[in-house]
């Protein structure tokens, strides 16, 4: 069954907290990974790998560059989940 936007956001927030050390409460739809959450490119790769495993989606490298905000990532996962 497909996850809701809220469920994806909650799970993604846990991933960002675990991988990047950002408080899950700060991971909101309008936050930029690099600007607001201070996630560098190497950490972003770790977030993507963890998200791929958690949500059973494939996020190609050329798609990662388009995921600048948390909302972008949530939308991509929601659209591409199995």
What does this structure look like?
- 56% of the residues lie in helices and 0% in strands.
- It is mainly alpha-helical and 82 residues long.
- The longest helix is centred in the first third of the chain and has 16 residues, at 5-20.
- It starts with a helix and ends with a helix.
- It has helices at 5-20, 41-55, 61-64, 70-80.
- It has one domain: Non-ribosomal Peptide Synthetase Peptidyl Carrier Protein, Chain A, CATH 1.10.1200.
- It is found in: Cytoplasm.
Summarize the structure.
56% of the residues lie in helices and 0% in strands.
Task: Lay out the secondary structure.
Elements: H1 5-20, H2 41-55, H3 61-64, H4 70-80
């Amino acid at each position: 069954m497909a996850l809701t936007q809220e469920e994806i956001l909650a799970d993604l927030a846990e991933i960002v907290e675990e991988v990047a050390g950002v408080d899950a409460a700060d991971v909101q739809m309008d936050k930029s990974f690099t600007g607001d959450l201070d996630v560098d490119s190497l950490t972003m790769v770790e977030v993507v790998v963890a998200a791929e495993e958690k949500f059973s989606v494939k996020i190609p490298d050329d798609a990662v560059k388009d995921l600048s905000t948390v909302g972008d990532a949530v939308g991509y996962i929601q659209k591409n989940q199995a």
